[in-house]
Design goal:
The chain is an alpha/beta fold. It folds into two domains: 54 residues; 211 residues, TIM Barrel. The protein has nine helices and ten strands. Strands 1, 2, 3, 6, 7 and 10 form a six-stranded parallel beta sheet that branches. The chain has a two-stranded parallel ribbon with strand order 4-5. It has a two-stranded parallel sheet with strand order 8-9. Strand 2, helix 4 and strand 3 form a beta-alpha-beta unit. Helix 1 runs antiparallel to helix 2, helix 3 runs parallel beside helix 8 and helix 7 packs parallel to helix 8. Bound molecules: zinc ion. The site of zinc ion (ZN) has 5 residues, from strand 1.
């Protein structure tokens, strides 16, 4: 529509220029030939204007939600998600969101601060998941503040400005949400099994946890729902390994999910991107 108007405007300007130049000719040199030239120019431009309006396709801005959104999120910063999950995502050109427990950097089985920085350099989003993973509804408000502010500051010390948060054990209440807003987070993810719509509270983003017991069919159904309703499916992963842990899934399962998302043509976003597309800034 705007394009159409710009083109119409351009032709109107051309049209006016020709009249002005033509009038100048007519004034200085009243030769009938000039009038004839002017008339043919006007005829040409008039026709051209109609053609231009018909031929020029109005550019369509692609709707980012047309096939639904998907986010791959990884809670806790498990080493296996880094070692076995991230390479599959990188190969598929997918940017995931890794929610890091910021004081676990030296713990065996978790990503080191250097690995967190490397994930960020590779285009993945780093989100916060507190410093030590308490259920924020079961500790004092002073400690909850320290966990929320502290994880932001720990990641800032690595050069990472966090926007997204995930609740340990999915635990939240209104006072926790107020602290999150005060700290400067833009969203927080729960583990409530629901797709995100345009009316979802950004501090109550739902997500489907993909555990060892979760069937691929269930994951596909969740993705289908977001696709069909033009909503946002957030998938929650923990460990990517074959250890038989209830929160582990084999890398083949992650690969199958990636391929399903690709086949459906769904747009893969980090949580902060999805938040903007679905819920605005
Ligand atoms: Zn967790």
């Amino acid at each position: 529509m705007v394009f159409k108007e710009i083109f119409a405007g351009t032709f109107t300007s051309l049209f006016l220029s020709v009249i002005i130049i033509g009038s100048f000719f007519a004034y200085t040199n009243t030769v009938p030939a000039n009038t004839a030239i002017l008339n043919s120019l006007l005829f040409f431009l008039n026709n051209k204007q109609v053609e231009a309006a018909e031929v020029i396709a109005v550019p369509r801005i692609p709707d980012p939600l047309s096939k639904g959104l998907v986010s791959f999120t990884f809670d806790d910063g498990f080493k296996s998600a880094y070692s076995f999950g991230a390479p599959l995502l990188d190969a598929a050109g997918i940017h995931a969101t890794f929610y890091i427990i910021s004081a676990y950097g030296d713990n065996h089985g978790y990503v080191t601060p250097e690995e967190v920085q490397e994930l960020s350099r590779r285009g993945h989003e780093i989100g916060a998941h507190t410093k030590t993973h308490p259920n924020l509804t079961k500790i004092s408000s002073a400690r909850a503040r320290r966990e929320i502010f502290g994880s932001r500051d720990d990641l800032a010390a690595l050069g990472i400005k966090v926007k997204s948060f995930a609740y340990p054990y999915g635990g939240y209440n209104p006072s926790v949400q107020t602290v999150l807003r005060d700290t400067g987070y833009f969203s927080a993810r729960t583990i409530v099994e629901a797709t995100v719509s345009t009316s979802t509270n950004p501090f109550e983003l739902g997500g489907l946890s993909v555990y060892a017991r979760t069937s691929l069919e269930k994951v596909k159904k969740f993705l289908d729902e977001a696709h069909d309703k033009k909503q946002w499916a957030i998938l929650v992963f923990h460990r990517i390994d074959e250890k038989g842990n209830p929160i582990s899934i084999p890398h083949e399962t992650l690969q199958s999910i990636i391929e399903y998302v690709e086949a459906k043509g769904m747009r893969v976003v980090t949580v902060s991107e999805g938040k903007e597309f679905m819920l605005g800034k």
